[in-house]
Amino acid sequence: MSMRKAASWSQPLQEICVPLGARTSITPVTLPMAICIIITAVTLLQTEALTKRFGGLKAVDSVTLALMEEEVLGLIGPNGAGKTTFINLVTGVLKPDAGTIFFKGRNITYLPPYQRARLGIARTFQILRPFAALSVQENVLAALAQKYCPQVFRTLKVRSSKHALQEVEKLLTLTGLEAWALQPAFSLPVGILRRLELARALALHPKVLLLDEPAAGLNDQELQEFCASLMQIRKEFKLSIILVEHRMRFVMTACNRIVVMHRGSLIAEGSPLEIANNPKVIEIYLGSS
Q: Has residue 11 got a pLDDT over 70?
């Protein structure tokens, strides 16, 4: 791809772009009559020198970054760069060898995944693994179990919860799954399964949503629809999102800010336009043609 074409992809959704690692950013705006408005962007999730080793390989090497409230942060890089390992560390699937993770100022480095989910951190997975024999509606109900009925897998009382059913209906509408509500998951095409994965994550009422290659397997039309739904959902839920993705048109359109990983380390950070024209990123990842 050419640098000119890459640069044209930049369509950031917000105007505030916060420097990497900053806990807060305060921007004064001078207006007529000496009125001054202060816009404060608050850090929701932060990692400091986060490190994970597998034998002699540093899959994540001293990664420090911050995710701001209602920001869409792109995390890109070549295969094997450490992106999914980073998500696994943030969500508690893996324990770090060094470094710390903060959520809303609280150290969550060693909390188990279910406690992080309760705090408001949810994710999707590259490999889709819904409950194959359950319907779309039942898959989302299962994700709501912790809120409405922790004993769902023993009693299935959540099925009779009016509030739960209403919430599932809302989630299915937001993700465009109404027509598939009663279909078993095993019968669904990949594009619909990606939407189901998103609906199940949203059922946890997250403040931070980590999306691990959500566009994998989608055709161009499905990707366009998924991107539009995601932006609507982000606004509706006031979400902060970390997006791991290889479909660069999607990343450049959806993200306010992008960080680039290579061999476990962060090598670049900036707006979509800055990343699209960064010589090091082009050489290592984007390519020059």
A: no
Can you list the domains of the chain with their CATH numbers?
Answer: 3-30+67-95+110-286 (3.40.50.300)
Separation between Cα atoms, residue 279 and residue 285, nearest integer Å: 10
DSSP letters spanning 30-78: E-GGG-EEEEEEEEEEEEEEEEEEETTEEEEEEEEEEEETT-EEEEE-S
Backbone angles phi, psi at 191, to 5 degrees: -60, -40
Say if residues 107 and 101 touch (Cβ distance below 8 Å).
yes
pLDDT at 35: 40
The residues facing 240 across adjacent strands are 208
Residue type, 121: I
| pTM exceeding the 0.85 threshold for the entire prediction | no
**Closest by CA position to 64, among listed 50, 79, 80:** 50
Using CB atoms within 10 A of its CB, is residue 177 exposed (0-12), middle (13-18) or buried (19+)? buried
